[in-house]
Amino acid sequence: MTDFLEYYSRHLEAVTKANALNKPIIFDALAAAGLTRVTVEFDGAGDSG
User: Fold this and answer.
1) Do 10 and 18 form a contact (C-beta atoms < 8 A)?
2) 18 vs 22: CA distance, rounded Å
3) Contact, 30 vs 38, CB < 8 A?
4) Per-residue pLDDT tens digits for 1-49
5) Within its chain, how far is the Cα of 39 from the centroid?
């Protein structure tokens, strides 16, 4: 269980860092394209194909 918790902690840190780096890039690109709204829908299904 400890291995999983360590792995998950590292995963959360990596995701947080990636989000912090990517967010301004994405928003700048959307603004440059003149987009003011983005709608994302999720149907609750997995990514099994």
Assistant:
1) no
2) 6
3) yes
4) 789 999 999 999 999 999 999 999 999 999 999 999 999 888 777 666 5
5) 15
